[in-house]
Amino acid sequence: MSTAGIEIRSVTQRFGGFVALDGVSLTIAPGEFAVLLGPSGSGKTTLLSIIGGFLVPQQGDVLIGGADMTTVPPAKRPTTTVFQDYALFPHMTIRANVGFGLRMRGVGKAERNEKADAMLALVGLEGQGGKRPHQLSGGQRQRVALARSLAVDPSVLLLDEPLGALDMKLRRQMQEELKRIQREVGTTFVHVTHDQEEAMAIADRIVVMSAGKIEDDGPPERIYLKPRTRFAADFMGLSSFLPGRVVSCDGATATVDTAAGSLTVTDARAWQPDRAVILSIRPEHFLSEPGDDGRQPLGQAVVESLSFLGTNHQATVRHCTAADFCPTVLLPQTGEPRVGETIGLWVRPDAPVILEE
Amino acid sequence: MATVRRRGGDGLRPWAFVVPALLWTVAFFCAPFVVMAAVSLWERVGTDLVASWSFVNYAKFFARPHFLEAMANSLEVTAIVTVLSILLAYPLAWILAERVPERWQRIALICAILPFWTSYVVRSYAWLLVLANNGVINQALTGIGLIDEPLSLANSRTATVIGFVHFFVMLLTLTIYANLKQLPKNYARAAADLGASRFATFVHVILPLTLPGIMVGAFLTFVLCIGDYITPQILGGNSDLVMPQLIMLQIGRRADFPTASALAILLMVVVTLVYIACARWLKLERA
Amino acid sequence: MRRAGGSGLGTAAAVVYAGAIYAFIFLPVVVLVLFSFQDGRFPVPPFRGFSLRWYEALIADRYLTAALVNSVIVALVSSAVAVTLGFLAAFGLARFRLPGAGLQKALIVAPLTVSYLIIGMGLLITFNAIGMPKSLFAAGIGHVVINMPLCFAIVFSQMGAHQANAERAARDLGAREWQVLLLITVPMMGPALFAAFFLSMTFSWDEFIISFLLTRFDVTLPVEIWSMLRSGLNPKTNAAGSLVFFISVALLLVLELAVFGRRRAR
Q1: How confident is the model at residue B144 (pLDDT cuts 50, 70, 90)?
Q2: Which residues on chain C are in Cβ contact (under 8 Å) with B17?
Q3: Which of A241, A274, B227, C164 has the smallest set of CB atoms within 10 Å of its CB?
Q4: Is pLDDT above 70 for B223?
């Protein structure tokens, strides 16, 4: 199986007055499972179309495996695409669908049937080659689309929200399958989704996009724990934002003054004193009792609403002194919290992330 | 995902798909029409056609009473046929859509339009068999002693109208049925739920919702009916001519293409005016 | 479906009404077919007994059988041309952004709004002017003019995003444009193309005025039947008409079983 890296060099694409991509540059390493994550209109699908060759960007270049592919049509690129609606050919058998790309490349019937059956085995559809698309379930069609795209040995596989049409349980199952298949074939996968849980579950690398720009780019853990922008923090799971001003910094920590009190945060950057910043804190990083792990008090808050999530209670609370600060916090499963109850808040120094205003 | 690639574009290739059809239409539809329009400004003098470029043939239309009569006959027959066909077809379509069990509907509909598949010429001839002096109806009526002398049903405007109505009842039943079936069932249910009687539901909900569809069917009926030569020629005979008969008379008996062209263009003008009226009405209805 | 409030009286009225209209619709056809078996010289009551002699006369009539063959040829060829041109135009206009696409569509469907008589006359005058003789070929051209817009409209209305996506997937997998057209679009559009072809066939098969104006020695079946009408009411004409009816119904059954039967099976 082959694989290739991708290099996007300051690509810009406008549709009428709408800027879909605004000078985007991105490098994806060979064999990487990259996920383009963002809300609709963020430009992620446009970027995928440009990598696949369905769209020629107005400015910028696309390199795949080091070769300039900017204006090369889809058929001549080492890429294939798994489409959102699968686009299986309804009048062909599953085997003929999977073998279609090889047929276009002049591969003989026996050989392409053999390859098609091998691909079907890879995606867990042994012995289904004689059926037609309408006889399969949604999840199975998804697998056929995957097998069809992989059958021609692409260096890069592009997936356009491929799991969007599946129900939640099937979706989780397919995510694991996708990851397994990607490890097996070693091909570079570029996967588009708006579902941050899906992105975290499958990606080696997440590219968060918004309004035609890349907001953040890195491994899932880093993006979740240390997002670079407020958008990335907000889009990747729940986060509460607390504005403040930098009081001092020493190369290892920074101290920030907020309406809820002063916090020292682990941060190596050199902040200018009095710089306006925002602290981003995940719900599970709020602690409701003191401890000896360096956690700092953040005042008190009143529980305004509660929902039980199974593993935790999720509460929206209103801070007693900073009335504009209404963070979402996770409370222990067994705590039996009540609306109207006043709780204390503590935060460890490594939990908050300092974001530029 | 956009299907269209940019930068350089698709070039001339897409045109290769469209050009054959366009060329055919231009060569065998537009060009003949232009030729016909040109010929309508010529004149037939003796046995020759003279390119006189005058409106004399159009003037003739307004000067000769039997030309104007033919237009009046055409409009009258077409109007009667259109109204009668809708009035007869609507209840049948409604019965098919609402009162016939679902699994029988398709077969009932196919039966209702089965005679559609006789040849158009044959259908008119078949009505001649029914309406002739010694035909089925007259023999049946004299047989039971209702009349002594046969009624002259054939070769009359009545026969023309019957022949047309027969054809268009089938056509309109089909279109109105399709229209009724695509109405969501919940409209009628909602009306009934709010206390409307069946009659009120029909008048206030079903009828207004199917009206645009009926108008399309009515226009189709109008166009096909006013342009038809066969039915009036076979069933109507040689009295009370309609426009297509008059046009064919110019071509057949006298080879007078200029007059025939002028009459054809006048007929098209009338159809176009009705089309504009229908289109405007439909637009208003939707707005 | 049984409904609350459906009175017996209403049902009776519905049955009577539908029965009356059905009788009206079937009356001429029944009379036509019945008296095609008349054992006598007039296709009017009384029915003098069952005979196939008029059908024999039909088969013996060389003009009529020739006209039947002509009709089939004109219908097949003109429909094939009409579907091909209509399909290509629909594909071009549905898949590419062409300047003046609205105008092109309007031009292609324009013949639908003009009566056959006027189309036939325009062609007659034009062919006269360029010295082209009357022939089946000329009539066939006319039939393509009236049927291509229909084929275009049917195929265009069925060109959905579904096919467009499959075509894009095929291109992505390396198919060339002609391969996309032949291996993906045509098979996926199969039912629509078949319906367009079939409808086109029936219209051509049944078309009278254009053939009447544009043919002379070799004529189509409706034109031949028309000339039979000059002999007045005649059981042979009944037999010819009945035969056309039987052929059409047989074709209809084929269509019903081939297209709709298959669709239901899915």
Answers
A1: confident
A2: 88-89, 91-93, 96
A3: A274
A4: yes
Is domain C61-265 given the CATH code 1.10.3720.10 in the classification?
A: yes
Quote the number of domains for chain A: 2
Contact between chains at A57 and B3 (C-beta distance less than 8 A): no
Q: Is pLDDT above 70 for C1? A: no
pLDDT single digits (tens) B58-105: 988 888 888 999 999 999 999 999 999 999 999 999 999 888 888 888
Are A193 and A308 members of one domain? no
Which stretches within chain C are classed as H helix?
A: 8-34, 53-60, 62-95, 101-109, 116-129, 136-158, 161-172, 177-179, 186-188, 190-206, 209-214, 221-228, 235-255, 261-265
Residue C160 pLDDT level (bands cut at 50, 70, 90): confident
What range defines the domain where residue A310 resides? 239-356
Give me the total of CB pairs closer than 8 Å, taking one residue from chain A and one from chain B. Answer: 29
Residues in chain B: 287
- Asked if the C-beta of B166 comes within 8 angstroms of chain C's C-beta atoms, the answer is yes
- Selecting from B35, B114, B125 the residue whose C-beta is nearest the C-beta of C241 gives B125
Residue B153 backbone dihedrals phi, psi, to 5 degrees: -90, -40
List C-alpha distances in Å: C41 to B123, C47, C233. 20, 11, 9
Q: Are residues A205 and A249 in the same domain?
A: no
CB atoms within 10 A of CB B137: 18
Q: B6: which chain A residues are within 8 Å (Cβ-Cβ)?
A: 55-56, 58
Question: For residue A181, what is the domain's CATH number?
Answer: 3.40.50.300
Check residues B114 and A205 and name the one with the higher pLDDT: A205
Over range C249-261, report the average pLDDT: 75
- C-alpha dihedral, C185 to C187 to C191 to C197, nearest 10°: 80
Q: What percent of chain B has pLDDT over 70?
A: 95
* Residue A73 within any structural domain of the chain: yes
Nearest Cβ partner of C164 from B3, B32, B198?
A: B3
Q: What percent of chain C has pLDDT over 90?
A: 48
Q: Count of CB contacts below 8 A, A vs C?
A: 63
Query: Tell me: the pLDDT tens digits for C65-92?
Result: 999 999 999 999 999 999 999 999 999 9
Count CB-CB contacts under 10 A for residue C74: 25
Pick B95's closest partner by Cβ from C18, C111, C126.
C18
Q: Quote the ipTM score.
A: 0.86
Partner-chain contact B2 A57, CB within 8 Å:
no
CA neighbor of B112 nearest in space, from B180, B168, B42: B168
Share of chain C above pLDDT 70, in %: 94
Contact A58 B5 (CB under 8 A): no
User: For chain B, what is the mean pLDDT?
Assistant: 86
What pTM was estimated for this model as a whole?
0.80
C-chain residues near A83 (CB < 8 A)? 165, 168-169
Q: Tell me the chain C residues in contact with residue B129 when contact means C-beta distances shorter than 8 Å.
A: 28, 31-32, 35, 43-44, 233, 238
**DSSP, residue by residue, A74-125:** GGGSSEEEE-TT----TTS-HHHHHHHHHHHTT--HHHHHHHHHHHHHHTT-
